[in-house]
Design goal:
single chain, alpha+beta, 13% strand, binds adenosine-5'-diphosphate, binds magnesium ion
Length: 727
């Protein structure tokens, strides 16, 4: 019999029925019905104005205020006509979350009338309080100004709640002095940098008609659903997003019976609600399925331009969480809500391409495309090898440490999987002996003799953090709770840098009179000789790889945030971002400060919570049981029986371990200062990683041991079995 609180929760769940939402509407009516699309704009605006807007979207640049006035007016008419009374500038601070500044359209006049008003200026610029968001020292509270500015490349949309509608405008968020306080600004800059360099390379390859090159992203989102009746009994899930305690259930995921199994009805009803809302918002949700762990699911969209995909990914997380509540669930986006059970990631599928050359990471069928493909692919290889630690740093969060540093996919070592066919081609290039093209013994990159690629490289390597998957790369090490902006910024920037290097090489060799194919081959060969060490097709989980990667290949194994985040302070990383015009040294430093602080805060909250739960919930339950047990044993003795004392002794030992664990954690938490400045930040992170985390683990083993002994009647926390299997 579970404890009374847990029993009540179970009863509540039994009574739940799949919640019917609005009746299903045909796709045509749903799709983007809440989006201020280009089509809507075209209908509402004079042709001349619409054309300039279109050009600004395509080519970037500043929006003229007279144009902005016309757009604002059309937007207001559209939104208020659908019931919106407020508009919100939506922005993406450094916290991985989405922030909104809401204002009413209402504008009282001096003659007592009240009208609605929305000008171009209100559309393109807002002013939330910059100091309330983490800024890593860029802004101090006394000069708190931060500005939001409309990102014209990401469409405005309506957010619906049961009580009305809000017009949402995606914006960048910058300081008074122009520094980026958000995740969108560097993403836009990184895309521009990548475009600049890709243009150069494509022109060197002889292309004359080259449309702007854009990065694309399709992010698969894994998540857990747990009934909300359990959540209110789990302070750890409520505040830290993960269980700090919990013994493994008798049945876990060993049967592999959840993956792609039938989706439970209540969950499917939830998913359909989510998808319908996403369709209204113009988010192209495309796949849904059960994931590996019980209670774990996935949603993935069709890919879009990286900037829009990023906004849509944030929206997806928001909609998932809000909709879960409506259906009596909590949607857990944490990377590791349950120890010993598969964690959640966000696979960021990424490529680059444009309207004239198509997907530049598509090997294609024709040899000519192959040369182009091989160069762009080699640029990725060079980038990932040169800046692997940076790619590790941008996925460093307290939650993701549980996946990356631990014995779970993918490892904290950034290597790259190409698939056997492509790996073979690049190995031949490295050896200077491209078999398939070595006709007549001339070692040039005979553009007409390159191998044809089979489109789908059949095999997949699930243990690689960064894998080529046919026509794109999949960054599989990103955390489920993270904004995809950081990883995309890093990938675009390292790629821009590599392409730029390649273009430099080619330029000088072409100027020296070398033929294009030969020059290209030299560049490819140099990349493979210097950076081929990052390519690895074997088992990324094996301890052999961990040794080999570090000792023989010279790759870094950065296990925790405390190891990975300081990479943001390295000279070569600072220079990379500055050279590509993506982040100034001040902006980069501020990111190091903010992310480090978030890590420290997360671990300290977990430590405090663990202490509190252990002392106020677990200890009382355990001593109560010890008392009952002691009495029973006495009675047995009085009856002349020979009671087994083993259980009592075990209980006593675990209680002692619990008490000692609490004392040690308390002392470590009160452990004074960690010095000054960046050194201080690093020391504080080390304290979290090396002292607090292991102590939380010690406490956990005592509590989980007790869970296996104490009367179920007295145990206050819903068990793993209940949370993972009851719905
Ligand atoms: P899997 O689980 O096999 O990796 P999914 O179908 O779940 O595959 O997800 C693949 C993701 O990759 C989708 O979001 C898809 O839109 C995206 N994708 C496909 N092509 C590209 C591309 N060129 N650029 C970015 N993302 C892409
Ligand atoms: Mg995938």
């Amino acid at each position: 019999m579970p404890s009374p609180q847990r029993f009540a929760a179970l009863q509540q769940i039994q009574r739940r029925r799949p919640a019917a939402t609005a009746p299903a509407a045909p796709f045509g009516e749903l799709w983007a019905s809440d989006v201020f699309t280009l089509e809507t704009m075209k209908e509402a605006l004079p042709g001349r104005i619409f054309k300039s807007i279109q050009r600004t979207i395509r080519e970037g640049g500043k929006l003229d205020l007279s144009l902005a006035n016309a757009v604002a007016d059309a937007m207001k008419t559209w939104a208020t006509g659908r019931g919106a009374l407020y508009y919100a500038h939506v922005f993406y601070p450094l916290t991985n979350s989405t922030a909104e500044k809401h204002d009413g359209f209402i504008s009282p006049k001096s003659d007592g009338r009240v009208i609605t008003e929305f000008t171009g200026k209100l559309l393109v610029q807002g002013e939330p309080d910059g100091s309330s968001f983490p800024n890593g020292g860029i802004r101090s509270t006394f000069e708190a100004r931060g500005y939001t500015a409309w990102d014209i490349t990401s469409p405005a949309y309506l957010m619906q709640t049961p009580n009305g509608v809000t017009l949402c405008i995606p914006t960048v968020f910058v300081s008074w002095t122009g520094e980026a306080l958000d995740k969108k600004t560097p993403l836009l800059r990184s895309n521009a940098a990548m475009n600049r360099q890709a243009q150069r390379l494509l022109r060197l390859l002889g292309e004359t008609d080259v449309a702007p090159v854009n990065s694309s992203c399709g992010a698969e989102q894994e998540y857990f659903l747990v009934d909300s009746a359990f959540i209110s009994l789990r302070p750890d899930l409520l505040l830290a997003g993960r269980t700090l305690f919990g013994a493994p259930p008798a049945k876990g995921q060993q049967f592999d019976d959840h993956y792609f199994g039938a989706i439970p009805e209540r969950v499917q009803v939830f998913m359909q609600d989510v998808e319908r809302q996403l369709y209204r918002l113009g988010v192209p949700a495309k796949t849904r399925h059960n994931e590996v762990a019980p209670g774990q699911f996935e949603i993935a969209p069709f890919h879009e331009a990286a900037n829009v995909a990023t906004d849509h990914q944030q929206l997806t997380m928001t909609v998932l969480k809000a909709t879960a509540k409506k259906h009596g669930f909590a949607c857990l986006l944490h990377e590791k809500p349950f120890a010993g059970i598969n964690g959640s990631g966000k696979h960021v599928n990424w490529s680059i391409g444009n309207a004239t050359q198509g997907n530049l990471l598509d090997p294609g069928q024709t040899p000519h495309d192959n040369l182009q493909f091989l160069l762009f692919c080699a640029a990725v290889i060079r980038g990932v090898h040169s800046y692997g630690p940076l790619l590790r740093a941008v996925i460093a969060t307290a939650g993701n440490d549980h996946r990356l540093g631990a014995n779970e996919a993918p490892p904290a070592i950034i290597s790259m999987y190409l698939g056997s066919q492509l790996e073979d081609v690049f190995n031949q290039i490295r050896e200077g002996n491209l078999q398939s093209s070595a006709k007549g013994g001339v070692m040039t990159l005979g553009v007409d003799t390159l191998p044809e690629f089979t489109k789908d490289p059949g095999d997949r390597n699930r243990t690689s953090p960064f894998a080529f998957t046919g026509n794109r790369f999949e960054f599989r090490a990103v955390g489920s709770n993270q904004s995809v902006a950081g990883p995309l910024v890093a990938m675009n920037t390292v790629l821009a840098d590599s392409i730029g290097w390649m273009a430099d090489q080619l330029e000088s060799q072409l100027n020296a009179g070398m033929a294009l194919s030969e020059a290209a081959f030299h560049v490819l060969q140099q990349v493979m000789r210097e950076h081929g060490a990052v390519v690895f097709g074997g088992d990324g989980y094996s301890s052999e790889w961990h040794r080999l990667a570090v000792e023989e290949r010279g790759l870094e194994n950065l296990r925790t945030c405390a190891d990975a985040l300081p990479v943001l302070q390295r000279q070569e990383v600072r220079e990379l971002f500055e050279r590509q015009g993506v982040l100034s040294p001040v902006e980069l430093e501020s990111r190091f400060e903010v992310y480090s602080e978030q890590y420290v805060l997360a671990i300290e909250v977990e430590a405090k919570l663990a202490l509190q739960i252990a002392r106020t919930q677990i200890y009382p339950a355990a001593v109560r049981y010890l008392g009952e047990l002691g009495q029973a044993l006495q009675e047995q003795q009085a009856m002349g029986l020979h009671p087994n004392l083993k259980l009592r002794n075990q209980l006593g030992e675990l209680l002692e371990q619990l008490n000692n664990g609490c004392d040690a954690l308390e002392e470590a938490l009160s452990g004074g200062s960690h010095g000054e400045g960046a050194d201080h930040t690093e020391a504080h992170m080390r304290h979290c990683a090396d002292t607090l985390m292991p102590l939380i683990g010690v406490l956990r083993s005592a509590v989980d041991g007790l869970e296996g002994l104490v009367d179920d009647d007295l145990w206050p926390l819903p068990s793993y079995r209940e949370m993972l299997f009851v719905r």
